[in-house]
Amino acid sequence: MAKQNGTYVFFDVQYEDGSRRSNRKVPTELLGGLDGDLPARRYIEAQDEEISKASGLPRPVIATLQRSPQPKPAKPPRR
User: Fold this and answer.
1) pLDDT at residue 6 above 90?
2) Is residue 57 a part of any domain in this protein?
3) Domain interval for residue 49
4) pLDDT tens-digit profile of 23-79?
5) What angle do CA 21, 39, 17 make, to 5 degrees?
6) In 3D, which of 53, 33, 51 has the Cα closest to residue 13?
7) Is there a contact between 49 and 61 (Cβ–Cβ < 8 Å)?
8) Which of 36, 52, 57, 60 has its CA 20 to 30 A from that of 16?
């Protein structure tokens, strides 16, 4: 996959084998529209396929995919 410049949305992925990966980056320009977050699933599956080919292990099947929680902004220190 080509390296993307720009902003990303982070996703938490739960696989059918029980493993979990947090903060998987998906380019923002792939998301939205009528497909919603479905392109994120395809993007992550394509990444997993490349990893699978390189490692020689089978690609895990995604059970659930959800956006990672947004970090809360830090509160300014009290004076």
Assistant:
1) no
2) yes
3) 20-67
4) 999 999 998 888 888 999 999 999 999 999 999 999 999 999 999 987 777 788 887
5) 30
6) 51
7) no
8) 36
* DSSP annotation of 76: P
Nearest to 8 by CA among 75, 78, 49, 67: 67
Tally the domains of the chain: 1
For residue 62, the tally of other CB atoms under 10 A from its CB is 16
For residue 65, how far is the Cα from the chain centroid?
A: 8
DSSP 31-75: S-GGGTTHHHHHHHHHHHHHHHHHHTSPPPPEEEEEEPPPPPPPP
pLDDT of residue 16: 96
